[in-house]
Write a structure and sequence with these properties.
homodimer, mainly alpha, Arc Repressor Mutant, subunit A, Tetracycline Repressor, domain 2, 2 domains, DNA-binding
DNA sequence: GTCTATAGATGGATAGAC
DNA sequence: GTCTATCCATCTATAGAC
Protein backbone atom coordinates (compact mmCIF):
# COMPACT_ATOMS: atom_id res chain seq x y z
CA UNK A 1 0.00 0.00 0.00
CA UNK A 2 2.38 2.64 1.18
CA UNK A 3 5.39 0.86 -0.31
CA UNK A 4 6.20 3.69 -2.65
CA UNK A 5 8.76 4.98 -0.20
CA UNK A 6 10.77 1.77 -0.08
CA UNK A 7 12.34 2.08 -3.50
CA UNK A 8 14.12 5.33 -4.20
CA UNK A 9 12.09 6.93 -6.93
CA UNK A 10 14.07 8.77 -9.61
CA UNK A 11 12.50 12.04 -8.63
CA UNK A 12 14.11 11.85 -5.22
CA UNK A 13 17.52 11.22 -6.67
CA UNK A 14 17.20 14.09 -9.06
CA UNK A 15 15.89 16.29 -6.34
CA UNK A 16 18.87 15.35 -4.21
CA UNK A 17 21.34 16.18 -6.93
CA UNK A 18 19.49 19.40 -7.62
CA UNK A 19 19.66 20.36 -3.95
CA UNK A 20 23.37 19.69 -3.80
CA UNK A 21 23.97 21.70 -6.94
CA UNK A 22 21.85 24.56 -5.64
CA UNK A 23 23.87 24.66 -2.43
CA UNK A 24 27.12 24.57 -4.37
CA UNK A 25 26.10 27.41 -6.65
CA UNK A 26 24.70 29.59 -3.91
CA UNK A 27 27.75 29.09 -1.73
CA UNK A 28 30.19 29.88 -4.51
CA UNK A 29 28.31 33.02 -5.40
CA UNK A 30 27.97 34.33 -1.87
CA UNK A 31 31.54 33.46 -0.91
CA UNK A 32 32.88 35.16 -4.02
CA UNK A 33 30.86 38.31 -3.43
CA UNK A 34 31.10 38.74 0.33
CA UNK A 35 34.06 36.71 1.56
CA UNK A 36 34.26 33.34 3.24
CA UNK A 37 33.88 34.43 6.84
CA UNK A 38 31.09 36.85 6.09
CA UNK A 39 28.76 34.19 4.71
CA UNK A 40 27.01 31.80 7.09
CA UNK A 41 25.49 28.42 6.40
CA UNK A 42 22.15 30.09 6.98
CA UNK A 43 22.87 32.63 4.24
CA UNK A 44 23.72 29.84 1.83
CA UNK A 45 20.67 27.69 2.49
CA UNK A 46 18.42 30.76 2.32
CA UNK A 47 19.89 31.78 -1.05
CA UNK A 48 19.55 28.22 -2.37
CA UNK A 49 16.03 27.92 -0.91
CA UNK A 50 16.85 24.63 0.79
CA UNK A 51 16.72 23.64 4.42
CA UNK A 52 19.43 24.51 6.89
CA UNK A 53 20.71 20.96 7.32
CA UNK A 54 21.49 20.53 3.61
CA UNK A 55 25.03 21.81 3.84
CA UNK A 56 26.02 19.30 6.49
CA UNK A 57 24.08 16.48 4.88
CA UNK A 58 25.54 16.88 1.41
CA UNK A 59 29.00 18.21 2.20
CA UNK A 60 29.75 17.38 5.81
CA UNK A 61 30.55 20.87 7.01
CA UNK A 62 30.87 24.45 5.90
CA UNK A 63 34.63 24.11 5.50
CA UNK A 64 34.26 20.91 3.48
CA UNK A 65 31.85 22.70 1.17
CA UNK A 66 34.34 25.51 0.73
CA UNK A 67 37.08 23.04 -0.02
CA UNK A 68 34.99 21.17 -2.59
CA UNK A 69 34.24 24.38 -4.49
CA UNK A 70 37.91 25.30 -4.31
CA UNK A 71 39.10 21.92 -5.62
CA UNK A 72 36.66 21.81 -8.49
CA UNK A 73 37.30 25.33 -9.73
CA UNK A 74 41.08 25.24 -9.40
CA UNK A 75 41.32 21.90 -11.17
CA UNK A 76 39.18 23.23 -14.00
CA UNK A 77 41.34 26.32 -14.27
CA UNK A 78 44.57 24.33 -14.15
CA UNK A 79 43.29 21.97 -16.82
CA UNK A 80 42.50 24.82 -19.19
CA UNK A 81 45.88 26.37 -18.62
CA UNK A 82 47.70 23.07 -19.10
CA UNK A 83 45.84 22.45 -22.33
CA UNK A 84 46.77 25.86 -23.71
CA UNK A 85 50.39 25.41 -22.69
CA UNK A 86 50.39 22.01 -24.38
CA UNK A 87 49.03 23.53 -27.56
CA UNK A 88 51.66 26.24 -27.49
CA UNK A 89 54.30 23.55 -27.12
CA UNK A 90 52.95 21.70 -30.12
CA UNK A 91 52.88 24.83 -32.24
CA UNK A 92 56.52 25.55 -31.51
CA UNK A 93 58.15 22.13 -31.26
CA UNK A 94 58.38 22.32 -27.48
CA UNK A 95 59.93 25.81 -27.44
CA UNK A 96 57.12 28.39 -27.33
CA UNK A 97 58.03 32.05 -26.95
CA UNK A 98 57.38 33.95 -23.74
CA UNK A 99 54.23 35.61 -25.02
CA UNK A 100 52.48 32.35 -25.82
CA UNK A 101 53.41 30.86 -22.46
CA UNK A 102 51.95 33.88 -20.72
CA UNK A 103 48.92 33.65 -22.97
CA UNK A 104 48.26 30.16 -21.64
CA UNK A 105 48.59 31.51 -18.11
CA UNK A 106 46.40 34.62 -18.56
CA UNK A 107 43.69 33.53 -20.98
CA UNK A 108 41.69 31.04 -18.89
CA UNK A 109 41.09 33.33 -15.90
CA UNK A 110 40.33 36.24 -18.21
CA UNK A 111 37.95 34.19 -20.32
CA UNK A 112 36.14 33.27 -17.12
CA UNK A 113 36.00 36.95 -16.16
CA UNK A 114 33.91 37.82 -19.19
CA UNK A 115 30.56 39.25 -18.10
CA UNK A 116 28.90 36.83 -20.49
CA UNK A 117 30.64 33.84 -18.93
CA UNK A 118 28.77 31.87 -16.28
CA UNK A 119 32.09 31.22 -14.56
CA UNK A 120 32.63 34.90 -13.91
CA UNK A 121 31.95 34.38 -10.24
CA UNK A 122 34.20 31.33 -10.03
CA UNK A 123 37.35 33.27 -10.75
CA UNK A 124 36.49 35.73 -8.02
CA UNK A 125 36.08 32.78 -5.67
CA UNK A 126 39.51 31.46 -6.63
CA UNK A 127 41.19 34.81 -6.18
CA UNK A 128 39.58 35.21 -2.78
CA UNK A 129 40.74 31.76 -1.70
CA UNK A 130 44.34 32.93 -2.05
CA UNK A 131 44.01 35.41 0.78
CA UNK A 132 41.06 34.13 2.82
CA UNK A 133 41.36 30.39 2.36
CA UNK A 134 41.14 27.87 5.16
CA UNK A 135 44.14 25.87 6.34
CA UNK A 136 43.19 23.05 3.96
CA UNK A 137 43.18 25.33 0.98
CA UNK A 138 46.39 27.06 1.93
CA UNK A 139 48.14 23.74 2.26
CA UNK A 140 47.07 22.77 -1.25
CA UNK A 141 48.15 26.11 -2.63
CA UNK A 142 51.48 25.73 -0.90
CA UNK A 143 52.28 22.15 -1.89
CA UNK A 144 50.47 21.73 -5.18
CA UNK A 145 52.71 23.75 -7.45
CA UNK A 146 53.25 21.06 -10.08
CA UNK A 147 50.97 22.95 -12.42
CA UNK A 148 53.03 26.13 -12.08
CA UNK A 149 56.27 24.21 -12.47
CA UNK A 150 55.44 23.52 -16.09
CA UNK A 151 55.02 27.23 -16.71
CA UNK A 152 58.22 28.04 -14.87
CA UNK A 153 60.14 25.43 -16.87
CA UNK A 154 58.72 26.72 -20.14
CA UNK A 155 59.70 30.28 -19.27
CA UNK A 156 63.20 29.20 -18.26
CA UNK A 157 63.55 27.39 -21.59
CA UNK A 158 62.30 30.47 -23.44
CA UNK A 159 64.79 32.75 -21.67
CA UNK A 160 67.85 30.54 -21.00
CA UNK A 161 69.99 33.68 -20.79
CA UNK A 162 68.24 34.83 -17.61
CA UNK A 163 69.13 33.54 -14.13
CA UNK A 164 66.46 31.08 -13.08
CA UNK A 165 65.79 33.14 -9.97
CA UNK A 166 64.85 36.09 -12.17
CA UNK A 167 62.37 34.01 -14.12
CA UNK A 168 60.69 32.81 -10.95
CA UNK A 169 60.31 36.35 -9.67
CA UNK A 170 58.86 37.54 -12.95
CA UNK A 171 56.38 34.68 -12.91
CA UNK A 172 55.46 35.85 -9.42
CA UNK A 173 54.85 39.36 -10.77
CA UNK A 174 52.60 37.97 -13.50
CA UNK A 175 50.57 36.03 -10.97
CA UNK A 176 50.19 39.23 -8.99
CA UNK A 177 48.75 40.93 -12.05
CA UNK A 178 46.12 38.20 -12.30
CA UNK A 179 45.27 38.11 -8.62
CA UNK A 180 44.61 41.83 -8.61
CA UNK A 181 41.69 41.42 -11.00
CA UNK A 182 39.07 41.53 -8.28
CA UNK A 183 35.74 43.30 -8.60
CA UNK A 184 36.76 45.78 -5.90
CA UNK A 185 40.02 46.63 -7.66
CA UNK A 186 38.28 47.04 -11.00
CA UNK A 187 35.82 49.42 -9.37
CA UNK A 188 38.61 51.38 -7.78
CA UNK A 189 40.47 51.69 -11.06
CA UNK A 190 37.27 52.75 -12.75
CA UNK A 191 36.84 55.45 -10.15
CA UNK A 192 40.48 56.56 -10.36
CA UNK A 193 40.48 56.81 -14.12
CA UNK A 194 37.26 58.80 -14.25
CA UNK A 195 35.45 55.89 -15.85
CA UNK A 196 37.57 55.34 -18.94
CA UNK A 197 38.73 51.81 -18.03
CA UNK A 198 36.32 49.14 -19.17
CA UNK A 199 37.06 45.83 -17.45
CA UNK A 200 34.18 44.18 -19.28
CA UNK A 201 36.29 44.10 -22.44
CA UNK A 202 38.35 41.11 -21.40
CA UNK A 203 39.86 40.62 -24.84
CA UNK A 204 41.40 44.07 -24.69
CA UNK A 205 42.48 43.51 -21.10
CA UNK A 206 44.22 40.29 -22.07
CA UNK A 207 46.17 42.12 -24.76
CA UNK A 208 47.12 44.84 -22.29
CA UNK A 209 48.33 42.30 -19.75
CA UNK A 210 50.31 40.40 -22.35
CA UNK A 211 51.94 43.56 -23.70
CA UNK A 212 52.97 44.62 -20.21
CA UNK A 213 54.17 41.23 -18.98
CA UNK A 214 55.95 40.24 -22.16
CA UNK A 215 57.90 43.48 -22.13
CA UNK A 216 58.69 42.90 -18.47
CA UNK A 217 60.11 39.49 -19.31
CA UNK A 218 62.25 40.92 -22.06
CA UNK A 219 63.97 43.40 -19.75
CA UNK B 1 54.98 61.14 22.90
CA UNK B 2 53.65 64.65 22.25
CA UNK B 3 50.74 63.79 24.56
CA UNK B 4 52.98 64.00 27.60
CA UNK B 5 52.63 67.77 27.59
CA UNK B 6 49.22 67.54 29.19
CA UNK B 7 49.61 67.75 32.95
CA UNK B 8 47.66 64.90 34.50
CA UNK B 9 48.57 61.99 36.75
CA UNK B 10 51.66 60.77 34.90
CA UNK B 11 51.57 57.14 35.94
CA UNK B 12 47.93 56.64 35.04
CA UNK B 13 48.28 58.44 31.77
CA UNK B 14 51.39 56.55 30.83
CA UNK B 15 49.81 53.27 31.80
CA UNK B 16 46.76 54.13 29.76
CA UNK B 17 48.79 55.09 26.74
CA UNK B 18 50.87 51.95 27.16
CA UNK B 19 47.77 49.80 27.30
CA UNK B 20 46.34 51.41 24.19
CA UNK B 21 49.62 50.99 22.35
CA UNK B 22 49.90 47.36 23.43
CA UNK B 23 46.40 46.66 22.14
CA UNK B 24 47.17 48.43 18.88
CA UNK B 25 50.39 46.49 18.33
CA UNK B 26 48.93 43.11 19.28
CA UNK B 27 45.91 43.65 17.07
CA UNK B 28 47.94 44.72 14.08
CA UNK B 29 50.22 41.74 14.44
CA UNK B 30 47.49 39.14 14.88
CA UNK B 31 45.31 40.60 12.14
CA UNK B 32 48.24 40.66 9.72
CA UNK B 33 49.21 37.08 10.47
CA UNK B 34 45.83 35.37 10.75
CA UNK B 35 43.25 37.55 9.03
CA UNK B 36 40.69 39.93 10.42
CA UNK B 37 37.83 37.52 11.00
CA UNK B 38 40.04 34.85 12.50
CA UNK B 39 41.21 37.05 15.37
CA UNK B 40 38.87 37.76 18.27
CA UNK B 41 39.00 40.54 20.82
CA UNK B 42 39.95 37.85 23.31
CA UNK B 43 42.97 36.87 21.22
CA UNK B 44 44.08 40.48 21.08
CA UNK B 45 43.75 41.23 24.78
CA UNK B 46 45.46 37.95 25.64
CA UNK B 47 48.38 38.74 23.35
CA UNK B 48 48.64 42.26 24.74
CA UNK B 49 48.25 40.97 28.32
CA UNK B 50 45.52 43.44 29.12
CA UNK B 51 41.94 42.92 30.24
CA UNK B 52 39.17 41.99 27.87
CA UNK B 53 37.38 45.33 28.08
CA UNK B 54 40.39 47.33 26.91
CA UNK B 55 39.53 47.16 23.25
CA UNK B 56 36.11 48.67 23.74
CA UNK B 57 37.33 51.17 26.30
CA UNK B 58 40.17 52.54 24.21
CA UNK B 59 38.83 52.09 20.68
CA UNK B 60 35.08 51.69 20.96
CA UNK B 61 34.76 48.41 19.11
CA UNK B 62 36.72 45.77 17.29
CA UNK B 63 35.88 47.31 13.92
CA UNK B 64 36.87 50.77 15.11
CA UNK B 65 40.22 49.36 16.23
CA UNK B 66 40.70 47.77 12.83
CA UNK B 67 39.82 51.03 11.14
CA UNK B 68 42.23 53.03 13.29
CA UNK B 69 45.12 50.71 12.45
CA UNK B 70 44.15 50.92 8.81
CA UNK B 71 43.98 54.70 8.77
CA UNK B 72 47.28 55.20 10.53
CA UNK B 73 49.27 52.76 8.41
CA UNK B 74 47.83 53.81 5.06
CA UNK B 75 48.37 57.49 5.81
CA UNK B 76 51.97 56.77 6.79
CA UNK B 77 52.50 54.80 3.61
CA UNK B 78 50.85 57.44 1.44
CA UNK B 79 52.94 60.15 3.05
CA UNK B 80 56.18 58.31 2.31
CA UNK B 81 55.14 57.74 -1.26
CA UNK B 82 54.06 61.34 -1.75
CA UNK B 83 57.37 62.57 -0.35
CA UNK B 84 59.36 60.37 -2.72
CA UNK B 85 57.25 61.45 -5.68
CA UNK B 86 57.76 65.06 -4.66
CA UNK B 87 61.53 64.54 -4.53
CA UNK B 88 61.48 62.91 -7.94
CA UNK B 89 59.59 65.90 -9.27
CA UNK B 90 62.17 68.27 -7.84
CA UNK B 91 65.05 66.32 -9.32
CA UNK B 92 63.53 66.49 -12.79
CA UNK B 93 61.81 69.87 -12.94
CA UNK B 94 58.38 68.32 -12.57
CA UNK B 95 58.93 65.71 -15.28
CA UNK B 96 60.39 62.60 -13.68
CA UNK B 97 60.88 59.50 -15.84
CA UNK B 98 58.69 56.43 -15.42
CA UNK B 99 61.26 54.52 -13.41
CA UNK B 100 61.55 57.17 -10.71
CA UNK B 101 57.77 57.48 -10.43
CA UNK B 102 57.50 53.73 -9.96
CA UNK B 103 60.36 53.89 -7.49
CA UNK B 104 58.32 56.27 -5.35
CA UNK B 105 55.41 53.84 -5.55
CA UNK B 106 57.37 50.65 -4.82
CA UNK B 107 60.04 51.70 -2.36
CA UNK B 108 57.98 52.50 0.75
CA UNK B 109 56.11 49.18 0.93
CA UNK B 110 59.31 47.29 0.13
CA UNK B 111 61.30 49.19 2.72
CA UNK B 112 58.64 48.25 5.25
CA UNK B 113 58.91 44.62 4.15
CA UNK B 114 62.52 44.38 5.22
CA UNK B 115 62.93 41.71 7.91
CA UNK B 116 64.88 44.27 9.94
CA UNK B 117 62.07 46.81 9.74
CA UNK B 118 59.63 46.98 12.63
CA UNK B 119 56.90 47.87 10.13
CA UNK B 120 57.25 44.56 8.35
CA UNK B 121 53.95 43.42 9.79
CA UNK B 122 52.20 46.69 8.92
CA UNK B 123 52.50 46.19 5.21
CA UNK B 124 50.98 42.74 5.54
CA UNK B 125 48.11 44.32 7.42
CA UNK B 126 47.58 46.85 4.64
CA UNK B 127 47.66 44.22 1.92
CA UNK B 128 45.16 42.12 3.82
CA UNK B 129 42.83 45.06 4.24
CA UNK B 130 42.43 45.24 0.48
CA UNK B 131 40.68 41.88 0.32
CA UNK B 132 39.33 41.37 3.82
CA UNK B 133 38.57 44.91 4.89
CA UNK B 134 35.35 46.03 6.51
CA UNK B 135 32.80 48.19 4.75
CA UNK B 136 34.43 51.29 6.25
CA UNK B 137 37.81 50.41 4.87
CA UNK B 138 36.51 49.47 1.46
CA UNK B 139 34.71 52.77 1.22
CA UNK B 140 37.93 54.66 1.96
CA UNK B 141 39.86 52.56 -0.53
CA UNK B 142 37.19 53.20 -3.11
CA UNK B 143 36.82 56.95 -2.66
CA UNK B 144 40.20 58.05 -1.41
CA UNK B 145 42.22 57.81 -4.59
CA UNK B 146 43.65 61.33 -4.49
CA UNK B 147 47.02 59.89 -3.55
CA UNK B 148 47.04 57.57 -6.56
CA UNK B 149 45.88 60.35 -8.83
CA UNK B 150 49.21 62.09 -8.42
CA UNK B 151 51.00 58.95 -9.56
CA UNK B 152 48.65 58.49 -12.48
CA UNK B 153 49.12 62.10 -13.55
CA UNK B 154 52.89 61.81 -13.30
CA UNK B 155 52.88 58.63 -15.40
CA UNK B 156 50.61 60.22 -18.00
CA UNK B 157 53.01 63.17 -18.19
CA UNK B 158 55.97 60.81 -18.53
CA UNK B 159 54.31 58.90 -21.36
CA UNK B 160 52.16 61.47 -23.20
CA UNK B 161 52.27 59.28 -26.30
CA UNK B 162 50.22 56.53 -24.61
CA UNK B 163 46.43 56.61 -24.35
CA UNK B 164 45.51 57.58 -20.81
CA UNK B 165 43.49 54.39 -20.47
CA UNK B 166 46.63 52.37 -21.09
CA UNK B 167 48.52 54.21 -18.37
CA UNK B 168 45.76 53.55 -15.85
CA UNK B 169 45.76 49.85 -16.64
CA UNK B 170 49.51 49.63 -16.32
CA UNK B 171 49.35 51.39 -12.98
CA UNK B 172 46.78 48.76 -11.99
CA UNK B 173 49.23 46.02 -12.99
CA UNK B 174 51.96 47.60 -10.87
CA UNK B 175 49.67 47.75 -7.86
CA UNK B 176 48.93 44.08 -8.40
CA UNK B 177 52.63 43.33 -8.24
CA UNK B 178 52.82 45.04 -4.87
CA UNK B 179 49.68 43.47 -3.43
CA UNK B 180 50.96 40.00 -4.27
CA UNK B 181 53.86 40.41 -1.84
CA UNK B 182 52.17 38.51 0.95
CA UNK B 183 53.95 36.09 3.25
CA UNK B 184 51.94 33.19 1.85
CA UNK B 185 52.85 34.06 -1.73
CA UNK B 186 56.52 34.45 -0.86
CA UNK B 187 56.45 31.02 0.74
CA UNK B 188 54.76 29.53 -2.29
CA UNK B 189 57.30 31.05 -4.63
CA UNK B 190 60.10 29.82 -2.41
CA UNK B 191 58.66 26.34 -2.60
CA UNK B 192 58.09 26.52 -6.36
CA UNK B 193 61.60 27.72 -7.08
CA UNK B 194 63.25 25.09 -4.95
CA UNK B 195 64.38 27.71 -2.45
CA UNK B 196 66.41 30.00 -4.70
CA UNK B 197 64.19 33.08 -4.27
CA UNK B 198 65.13 35.17 -1.25
CA UNK B 199 62.39 37.62 -0.38
CA UNK B 200 64.39 38.92 2.56
CA UNK B 201 66.64 40.80 0.14
CA UNK B 202 64.21 43.63 -0.43
CA UNK B 203 66.76 45.82 -2.19
CA UNK B 204 67.20 43.18 -4.87
CA UNK B 205 63.46 42.64 -5.04
CA UNK B 206 62.89 46.35 -5.56
CA UNK B 207 65.30 46.33 -8.49
CA UNK B 208 63.57 43.29 -9.96
CA UNK B 209 60.16 44.91 -9.68
CA UNK B 210 61.40 48.16 -11.20
CA UNK B 211 63.09 46.37 -14.09
CA UNK B 212 59.92 44.43 -14.84
CA UNK B 213 57.45 47.29 -14.45
CA UNK B 214 59.54 49.90 -16.23
CA UNK B 215 59.90 47.60 -19.23
CA UNK B 216 56.16 46.96 -19.12
CA UNK B 217 55.52 50.70 -19.26
CA UNK B 218 57.84 51.11 -22.21
CA UNK B 219 55.95 48.57 -24.33
C1' DG C 1 40.64 53.17 34.74
C1' DT C 2 40.81 48.28 35.42
C1' DC C 3 38.74 43.99 35.48
C1' DT C 4 35.23 40.34 36.16
C1' DA C 5 30.93 38.58 35.04
C1' DT C 6 27.49 38.39 31.96
C1' DA C 7 24.20 39.90 28.67
C1' DG C 8 22.85 39.47 23.92
C1' DA C 9 23.49 37.80 19.40
C1' DT C 10 25.10 34.62 15.99
C1' DG C 11 26.71 30.60 13.90
C1' DG C 12 27.90 25.54 13.08
C1' DA C 13 26.23 21.32 13.77
C1' DT C 14 22.83 17.64 14.95
C1' DA C 15 18.92 14.88 16.89
C1' DG C 16 14.60 13.36 15.84
C1' DA C 17 10.07 13.78 13.65
C1' DC C 18 7.96 12.83 9.25
C1' DG D 1 16.19 12.30 2.52
C1' DT D 2 14.07 16.39 4.13
C1' DC D 3 13.28 19.70 7.49
C1' DT D 4 12.46 21.78 12.04
C1' DA D 5 13.85 22.68 16.54
C1' DT D 6 17.54 22.96 19.40
C1' DC D 7 22.07 22.35 21.44
C1' DC D 8 26.35 24.28 22.32
C1' DA D 9 30.31 26.98 21.39
C1' DT D 10 31.98 31.50 20.48
C1' DC D 11 32.00 36.17 19.88
C1' DT D 12 31.25 41.34 20.80
C1' DA D 13 29.91 44.53 23.89
C1' DT D 14 28.73 46.31 28.41
C1' DA D 15 27.21 46.78 33.25
C1' DG D 16 28.88 47.10 37.72
C1' DA D 17 32.21 46.12 41.43
C1' DC D 18 36.59 47.90 43.11
Amino acid sequence: MTDSQIHDPPETEEAQAATKAAVFAAAERLFALHGFQNVSVRDITAEARVNLASVNYHFGSKDALLFEIFKRRTSELNRERARMLHEANERHAGQPPVREILEALFTPPLRWSDPANERRISIQFIIRSRSEGTADMREVLQNDVSHLERFADALIAARPDLPRETVYWRLHFCLGMIHNNRFAEFDRLHHLSGGITREGDVKALLTRMLDFAEAGFMA
